Amino acid sequence: MKTITVFVYGAEQICPSCVNFPSAKETSSWLEAALKRKYGEQVDVRYVDIHEPVGSAETVAFAKRVLDEDLWYPVVVIEGEIVAEGNPKLKEICQKIERVGVKQLG
Q1: Which of 12, 86, 87 is CA-nearest to residue 49?
Q2: How far is CA 16 from CA 49, 54, 74, in A?
Q3: For the segment 62-91, what is each residue's pLDDT rounded down to a tens digit?
């Protein structure tokens, strides 16, 4: 069974261009609940604070990239690829998850 990590990069403060959207942390929680229902333990969702990143060198470097490139957060990353920016769409995230080989439960 394939397992993947979905990274959600963001900050406590809402992106200036995203004032009507939920915070990155709220989005991470919502995404985790939705993906766990659909894929179970095959998917792990990790929130990364772009101002205080913790994790691998790759995770820290990507958090810096979000800031340097003024990406709209939350930024959802799966297997090194940006899947969503600003207001993530569950359908697009699920399509990417299934393209990398994770199967839905049931």
Answers
A1: 12
A2: 16, 23, 12
A3: 999 999 998 988 999 999 999 999 889 999
Mean pLDDT, rounded, of the chain: 91
Distance of CA 93 to the CA centre of its chain: 9
* Residues 75 and 38: beta-carbon distance below 8 Å: no
SS3 content of the chain, % helix, strand, coil (to 5): 40, 20, 35
